[in-house]
Specification:
40% of the residues lie in helices and 16% in strands. It is an alpha/beta fold and 303 residues long. It is globular.
């Protein structure tokens, strides 16, 4: 037991990332049933879809689970009210300032963790009243911090900066990495990539197979003028790279990105024109195949 397992009421201090187009009720409930903390990824769900996933997750597990909510969500007021009405007890916030919503959530008995990319933002999150912070390094998939600080450097600086329990994220895919960040002061880990490629993930099987065959250097942090995002190199990312190299404006990049690009890639399996978000840790998983959550959790916790 440590502060993370006590805070969330879980057996193992392992949190599954709330990833767009991957983290539905099947994945979240499977992680929770295996002793970790499953998170639903609200970032790719309309409010009524999120309500459905919360109810299905509750029916599939009697263990704690939570919801990850990007604070830049366009219907944020509606989403926050929905999770409160549905009795969600744990919320992870990201991609924005926690100052506005942390107090509101805690007044309703909800435990709050916030994702940070620097010790500065960790201190701001602590001042806002969050219960824990996730220190997410440059290696992570999806949306990333502008600081581009690696997990190895970020975790100890955040641990030194705050008195809160710290959850390490970014590049963590096996027991070796868990031991490493524990040595740096983290009391838990948040794992995205490894769980995104499990059987229970709602991502396309084509996407999973592609990612399980990536090597070092096959992903790249891009779209820095919008929101830095780690992408698999493909036709779409090549177009982004060409545009960025030519000095494309924020508006030009937004037009190139369009709407539904991540859904097209991750969920629908368009491996050329889709936005394929995944972390650097894929290069550690080449021989794993598409595992079940139970198999992954056993590997991560066997000793």
């Amino acid at each position: 037991m440590n502060r993370i397992t006590s805070l969330f009421g879980i057996k193992h201090p392992i949190v599954q990332g709330g990833m767009v187009w991957c983290s539905g009720w099947r994945l979240a409930s499977a992680v929770s049933n295996a002793g970790g903390l499953g998170l639903l990824g609200a970032g790719s769900m309309h409010p009524e879809t999120l309500r459905e996933h919360i109810r299905k997750c509750r029916a599939a597990t009697d263990k704690p689970f939570g919801v990850n909510i990007p604070l830049m969500y366009p219907q944020i007021d509606e989403i926050m009210q929905l999770v409160a009405d549905e009795g969600v007890r744990i919320v992870f916030t990201s991609a924005g300032s926690p100052a506005k919503w942390t107090g509101w959530l805690k007044e309703r008995g909800i435990t709050v963790a916030h994702v940070v990319s620097s010790s500065y933002f960790a201190r701001k999150a602590e001042a806002a009243g969050v219960d824990a912070v996730v220190a997410e390094g440059f290696e992570a998939g999806g949306h990333n911090g502008r600081e581009e600080t690696t997990t190895l450097c970020l975790v100890p600086t955040v641990c030194d900066a705050v008195s809160l329990p710290v959850i390490a994220a970014g590049g963590i895919a096996d027991r070796r990495a868990i031991r490493a960040v524990e040595a740096l002061g983290a009391e838990g880990v948040q794992i995205g990539t490894r769980f995104a490629l499990t059987q229970e993930s709602s991502a396309s099987e084509d996407f999973k197979i592609l990612c399980l065959n990536l090597k070092e250097g096959d992903t790249m942090l891009m779209l820095k003028k919008l929101a830095p995002t780690r992408l698999v190199k493909n036709a779409f990312s090549n177009a982004v790279y060409t545009a960025e190299t030519a000095g494309a404006s924020e508006e030009e990049l937004r037009l190139l990105l369009g709407r539904g690009r991540a859904k097209k890639g991750i969920f629908e399996g368009d491996l050329n024109e889709g936005e394929l978000e995944i972390g650097q840790a894929t290069c550690l998983l080449n021989r794993k195949g598409i595992q079940t959550v139970e198999e992954v959790m056993k590997e991560l916790t066997e000793d």
